[in-house]
Amino acid sequence: MPQFLQTLRQTERSTRDITSSPAFRSIFAIFMSFVVFGVFLLFIGRDPIDIYSSIFSTNLASKVGMSEVGVRMIPFVFTGLATAIPARVGLINVGGEGQLYLGAWGATGVALYSGIGTIWLMIPAMMIGGFIGGAAWSGLAILLRNWRGVNEVISTLLLNFVAISFVNIFVFGPWKNPEGFGYPYTPNFSDAATLSGFGDTRFHGGAVIALVAVVVSYLILSRTRWGFNMRAIGGNPGASQRRGVPVVKYMIVAMLVGGGMAGLAGMSEVAGIQHHLRPGISDNFGFLGFLASWLANHNPLTIIAMAALLAVILVGGDALQFTGNLPSAAMFILIGLTLFMVLGFRRKSEPAT
Length: 353
Known about the structure:
With about 350 residues, the protein is mainly α.
């Protein structure tokens, strides 16, 4: 009998450990968001089982659906990292959208005017141009924060709209394709400036760059002294400063690297999908990457899973316009519910992982 009671206590303890883990709470929160959205679907006269089956079968049962999910995931991962890296030092970067635009602008400038003729030099040069473009835009926000005390949430958010207008000046002006029949886009890139696709799908080499960025970010944030100091600053910047950690330096670097990651999202879009720069290059990728990072608790590896979830919902939502007579905008309700549920079930003191 005592052995049985001991086994029972161990089982209860294990169950309690599992149910209190961040991963379990996140999964349960996502499940509950689907339940609540299912009630909403019933309220408007739709069958939630049919809707959910259609979403996942559309994406996972065909090569085209899988490739479209992958295409959507790439910018989500980059812009998720753009949020996650500054978050480690307590900064909130809402400017992934604008930084993506400046990254696309920088990569386009390299593609059109560098004169590089080989893909092995052109793509790295475009990556550098995209990274610098995004980093420079996020640098404006951190400059305003340290120079004039402007909160980075406000500055990064407002700079998004400035970035879009800045890029449009070039697309409608000096970079406009003279052979484009009046349409506002730049000349098409050369073959050396395009990321190859996989097979006959739109899924392209930007996925490899995103995967490398995730792995490198994870290793630096979790396995190096630099990453440890960043977590310490995010937890208590005052104590870190007293212990001799250069807090301002870490914040500047984190924001610049975060902006650079969003810039790589812009580079991957113009090099992998569009093959030129045009207005509206991003479909709210920066804001959705911001959501992916918060859903993942700013963990670079978990961002991949959250980016996949958002991509499945959005691509499935596009298909539902035709198969389920449901506006694709309804999927943003599900995404919003997911975010609120995950944040609601997260413990107040739970640190970034």
